[in-house]
Design a protein that fits this description.
The protein has five domains: about 100 residues, DnaJ domain (Helix Hairpins, Orthogonal Bundle), CATH 1.10.287; about 110 residues, Urease metallochaperone UreE, N-terminal domain (HSP40/DNAj peptide-binding domain, Sandwich); about 40 residues, no CATH class; about 70 residues, Urease metallochaperone UreE, N-terminal domain (HSP40/DNAj peptide-binding domain); about 35 residues. The chain is elongated, with a radius of gyration of 42 Å. Helix content is about 30%, strand content about 25%. The strands form six sheets. The chain has a four-stranded mixed sheet. The protein has a three-stranded mixed sheet with strand order 1-9-8. The chain has a two-stranded antiparallel ribbon with strand order 2-7. The protein has eleven helices and 15 strands. The protein has about 375 residues and is an alpha+beta fold. Helix 2 packs antiparallel against helix 3.
Length: about 375
């Protein structure tokens, strides 16, 4: 840093009435002379180069230059007073009020408190999507999954310091990570806070960083976890694995892992919560004469009685043959929709039998047709 008592105009070699263009021109000229990459005496050039940049950072800014001309070097660091007022005299909410207290050194901690930079921080939660078959969801199962996550470094235990050493509290900031600077101004003392340059705002100093995690305190690791899937889970169900998420920092706890379940589409069954649905094909004689069928269920077989005269799309319920409730003893139901199949090809014997059936039931069919036509007429005309 340049000497705060040094005249910035003298450093740049310009008059106090110099224009901004003249100041910029003088700065560029001096940079070409004293830049460490071109100067012969590197050490002297570095010092001079810093002085030139500090002077130009003030004189090259009209507002800072105005404050510098009125109040000297301390005035140059004041900036616009509206920054302290939250942008207006309404204080800009409590943030602006906190700035007022900081500026005059009253109760800064109460209005502008900062979290402890070295406090334990919990790791982030993670998500893993797991796909199951309907059968696996029905019976429950165990699944091994691989998860890549950040875990606390085993060598430094998350301290970031080389094994056998430990971080030291920064003497410059006392472990707060912040340094307070008090400067005088026409308005009194101005108190400002900034990150500590010695520890880079961390509050601790580490002489030698951990070689295993390179000073991050955490490492990437692929973990294999075994999950117990309870019977009855459905798409969207979540299983929480405590502490299996990302590792924390500064000794903080690990986050959690949430396993989200997705059920694959089944070739036979459809699901709605605990109930299952399926279609069963039956032939015309079974529908007309009735039958007793053996129906496949999710966990075996069940008997289904088809009454005589069953129509296509009729739905039957088989109680207790659906999915189980998660962590419960009850089960949903299985709904079976029957579909009457009409044969596309008939042999001579089948054709003869159907013709005989048609002839035998012709009168009944005509009666049904007559009844249907009467109902249709009444629907349109309102008359029988």
């Amino acid at each position: 840093m340049a000497d705060s008592k040094q005249d910035y105009y003298e450093v740049l070699g310009v008059d106090k009435n110099a224009t901004q263009d003249e100041i910029k021109s003088a700065y560029r000229k001096l940079c070409r002379i004293y830049h460490p990459d071109v100067a012969e005496d590197k050490k002297e050039a570095e010092v001079k180069f810093k002085e030139i940049n500090e002077a130009y950072s003030v004189l090259g800014d009209e507002e800072k230059r105005h404050n510098y001309d009125q109040f000297g070097p301390e005035g140059a660091s004041m900036g616009d007073m509206s920054d302290f007022m939250g942008g207006d005299f309404g204080f800009g909410g409590m943030g602006g009020l906190g700035s007022i207290f900081d500026m005059f050194g009253f109760g800064a901690g109460a209005y502008n408190s900062r979290p402890d930079r070295n406090a334990p921080v919990r790791g982030r939660d993670m998500r893993y999507d797991l796909e199951l078959t309907l059968e696996e969801a029905f019976s429950g199962c165990k699944k091994d999954i691989e998860v890549e996550t950040l875990v606390t470094c085993g060598a430094c235990k998350g301290t970031k310091a080389k094994k056998g050493t430990s971080p030291k509290v920064c003497g410059a900031c006392g472990g707060t990570g912040q340094v307070t600077k008090v400067t005088k101004s026409p308005f009194g003392q101005i108190m400002t806070q900034a990150p500590c340059s010695k520890c880079k705002g961390q509050g601790v100093k580490i002489d030698e960083y951990c070689e295993t995690c390179h000073g991050t305190g955490r490492m990437s690791k692929t973990k294999t976890l075994t999950i117990d899937i309870p019977a009855g889970v459905d798409t969207g169900s979540k299983i929480r694995l405590a502490g299996e998420g990302e590792g924390g920092t500064n000794g903080g706890d690990s986050g959690d892992l949430y396993v989200v379940i997705f059920i694959k589409e089944h070739e036979i069954f459809q699901r709605s919560r605990k109930d299952l649905f399926r279609v069963e094909q039956i032939d015309f004689p079974q529908a007309a004469l009735g039958a007793e069928l053996t129906i496949g269920t999710i966990d075996g077989e069940a008997k289904l009685k088809i009454p005589a005269g069953t129509q296509c799309d009729t739905v039957f319920k088989i109680k207790g043959k659906g999915m189980p409730a998660v962590n419960g003893s009850s089960r949903g139901d299985l709904y079976v929709k029957v579909w009457v199949m009409i044969p596309k090809k008939l042999n001579d014997k089948q054709k003869k039998a159907l013709k005989e059936f048609a002839d035998a039931s012709g009168k009944d069919n005509k009666e049904k047709d007559k009844t249907f036509l009467q109902k249709l007429k009444k629907a349109f005309t309102g008359k029988d």
